[in-house]
Amino acid sequence: MSSLWIIIAVVVGYLVGSISFAVLVAKRKGVDIFKAGSGNPGATNVVRVLGKGPGYTVFFLDFLKGFAAAHWPTFALHCGWIAVDADTLLWMGIAGLGGAVAGHSFSIFLKFRGGKGVATTIGGLLALMPWVTLGALLVWNLAFFASGYVSLASICFGLTLMPLAAGLHEPRALVGLGLVLAILILWRHRANLQRLMKGTEHKFERKATKEQRD
Description:
Largest sheet: none
Distance between the termini: 35 Å
Order of helices and strands: HHHHHHHHHH
Number of helices: 10
Shape: globular
Helix content: over 70%
Number of domains: 2
Strand content: under 5%
C-alpha cells in the first residue's frame, strides 16, 4: 500500500470539497448565504432562500464533488495514469471522500466554515459502495416523507450506513467508513438532534429561518 498516493487523495479531495457551490450560486444571485435563512451554506438553505432550481443545482454539484473525489483514483487507474494495488485504490477512494467531506465542512476558502456535507457524502459513497448508498437513500426518503424533517432523514441515512455495509459484506474498511460517517453526521447535526428531542425542530419549508440543515 502506497501512503503517498493516499495522502495525495486526501489533499485532492479536501481542495475539491472546499469549493462551496452554495456560496457561489447564492453570490451570483446577490445573496450572502451566511446571512440568509439558517445561515448554513448548504443545498437545503439555498432551496429555502432562492428556490428549488438553485438549491437542486447546489445539491447536484455538492454530490458531484464527493463522487469525483472518491472515484478519480479508479478512473486514473483505468486510464493508466497511476499504478496501484487494490488495497491502495480502495484507501485512496476512502481518503478522497474523507478529504472532500472535511473540505465541505471546514473549507479553506471560507475560513474553515462550511455545510454539513450530506450531499458530498452521498456522492462519494455512491462511487465506493453503490448498493449500500441506494439502501441508505431509501431510508432517507422514507424518514423525510414520514416526518418532514431533513435533519432527521440525514441522521437516519448516517445510522444506516454501517449496518448495510456489514450486511452486504463490504470490505472492513468500508464498514469502518460507515461508522465514521455516522458519527460525523450525528456530530454535524447535534443542534438539530437537540431540537428534535425537545420538539422544537422545524419541518422543511422553503422560507424557514431557524433550522440549520444541509
